[in-house]
From TrEMBL:
This is Aldehyde reductase 2. InterPro entries: Epimerase_deHydtase (IPR001509), NAD(P)-bd_dom_sf (IPR036291), NAD(P)_dehydrat-like (IPR050425). Belongs to the NAD(P)-dependent epimerase/dehydratase family. Dihydroflavonol-4-reductase subfamily. Coiled coil: none annotated. Residues 14-200 form the NAD-dependent epimerase/dehydratase domain. Keywords: Oxidoreductase. One of its GO terms (molecular function) is oxidoreductase activity, acting on the CH-OH group of donors, NAD or NADP as acceptor.
Length: 348
């Protein structure tokens, strides 16, 4: 592994919230491979026992990974016990419910930020905190709309108005609540940074669409597994989002790791959107990889999102911290799609 200087000592405990998630599970694995210990928070450890088996078993056998229950991320003092003795926190957990009432999504997300940040303030061992935000916090990522130039101060504030529109709550609220929760939660993170004299560093990592290897079957069935939607021809999921950005989950996990370990990354808002792509490009790769399978027809008038952003810092971290011999930055989209569909969990 890399011999680079790290901001926390080798062998330190790292807290990863929502550890059973697609991205979070890769974050856990990469820290373990680098010689750190991982404490993962999950709603129910019995439902996430796969994190102690398979690829993780050798680490579990030596006590390098453990799971703790945090059933309600927004509860007061939810993380007070889990945070004890950790050197770093990666807060990936989010409210997964797609429901109309913003009070059931946005409110607990913000409460979760307050809970974990207040716990970190009280724990002297904490040196680094990384929050997983979303590209949707900075941009609507809607095809055909000018998303503009994304910078440090870019915010998708329009979605807040949609989410908090007066009741009765309907589907428009449900679709707006997730991005609105990310906008509000990330702003709450930076509010903590600005209004408190913190003894730890804070960075934010903002991915767009994720592709790549699932570590558990539930990662295949998730609503945000865009490649699987295209593989199965799920037009209901595809049609509203004709174009987006996609990065390999291992790349985004590595940026989280680097945001913790790199002493030079301070107060960063790391956009790691990866490759710009539309459905026809993804379908073309799928046809190449699975020539015997029929896929949905190409979309007429394909186009990329009209958005400009600087991912230089994220790519530099990939090259600096990668253990790959080529160190070329983003994993090619075709390679990532291959890993997405070549696994024991995808059928048909």
């Amino acid at each position: 592994m890399s011999s680079l200087t790290t901001s926390i000592a080798l062998g330190s405990w790292v807290l990863v919230t929502g550890a059973s998630g697609f991205l979070a599970s890769h974050v856990c694995l990469q820290f373990l491979k680098r010689g750190f210990k991982v404490r993962g928070t999950v709603r129910d450890p019995t439902q996430s026992s796969w994190l102690l088996e398979g690829r993780f078993k050798s680490y579990a056998d030596i006590g390098a990974i453990e799971l703790v229950s945090v059933p309600h991320l927004g509860a007061d003092s939810a993380y007070d016990e889990a945070i004890k003795g950790v050197a770093a926190i990666i807060h990936t957990a989010y409210v997964t419910n797609i429901v109309p009432d913003p009070n059931d999504v946005i409110t607990p997300m913000v409460a979760g930020i307050r809970s974990i940040m207040n716990a970190a303030i009280q724990e002297p061992s904490v040196k680094e905190v990384v929050f997983t935000s979303s590209a949707l916090a900075a941009s609507p990522l809607v095809g055909g709309i000018d998303n503009g130039i994304i910078g440090r101060d870019s915010w998708n504030d329009a979605v807040l108005e949609a989410a908090w529109a007066p009741p009765p709550y309907g589907m428009s609220h449900a679709m707006a609540n997730y991005p609105a929760s990310k906008v509000t939660a990330e702003k709450e993170v930076w509010k903590f940074v600005e209004t408190n004299d913190l003894h730890f560093n804070v960075n934010v990592v903002s991915p767009a669409g994720l592709t790549g290897e699932p570590l558990d079957k539930k990662h295949i069935e998730g609503p945000a597994n865009w490649v699987v939607h295209a593989y199965r021809g799920n037009k209901a999921a595809m049609d509203p989002m004709p174009a987006s950005f996609y990065a390999d989950v291992k790349d985004v996990a590595l940026i989280h790791v680097a945001a913790v370990l790199d002493p030079e990354v301070k107060n960063a808002r790391l956009q790691c959107w990866g490759h710009s792509a539309h459905w026809n490009e993804i379908l073309s790769v799928l046809r190449k990889l699975r020539p015997q399978k029929e896929f949905v027809d190409d979309y007429p008038d394909p186009h990329h999102l009209e958005v400009s952003l600087d991912q230089t810092e994220s790519v530099a971290l990939l090259k600096k911290w990668s253990d790959k011999p080529d160190k070329n930055g983003w994993t090619p989209l075709e390679d990532s799609i291959f890993e997405n569909i070549t696994n024991p969990y995808l059928e048909g």
